[in-house]
What does this fold into?
Amino acid sequence: MSSDSEKKMYFLKQFPLFKNLSDYELKPLADLMDTRRYPRDSFVFMKSELLTHVYFILDGEVKIFRTNPDGKEQIINILKAPDMFPHQGLFRKGHYPANAQISKEAKLMTMSIADFEEFLIVYPAVSIKMFRILGEIIVDLQNRLEERLLLTVYEQIIRLFLRLADNHGEQLNDEETVISLQFTNQDLANMIGSSRETVSRTVSLLRKEKFIRSDEQGNHVIKYFDLKEQLTL
It folds into this structure.
């Protein structure tokens, strides 16, 4: 086995979608992958372009967003290693559902969907393993939709901070978790479909209540379990 193939297999094992695959299944999958570096602010793809490839982040950050008819940007997600996108890309036809832009210089692995479909014909058991993982992703997306429909902005912001901590957080001590990516109030507003002013007031209230603070680097530091408790009151 070539060194390049071994590296690709190692990286693939980091992605949740492939975590249950054996080396026997990973080897031919790794051989389908190409790698490429993208500079900051470049686009990986634009919404409504023909969906032909899926991407896997080895390092860097990728912003997934849409723009409404008024030109307002709504951030769907901020992704980093080991994330893949678009999540539904491997199992659907059509066009990309959103824009993907590099927010921090990134190295991505990419795979043709057509090649992946041929791979599944040869290794059909892989489909079952992947569907189980995709089911978990779908549940997460359903929960986010439910939040927007049923929760107040205060509750949505708390849920958002908890989710960011789960995906990008590092525990500092028994009480505090630092979120390693930096987000402005406008970024947070875009993620939940609210206004910057409303989010700013909510964040100020959370700071006043000492549920969140900023560290010297400008990262959000949250009291994870205290925030979570606010949702049960």
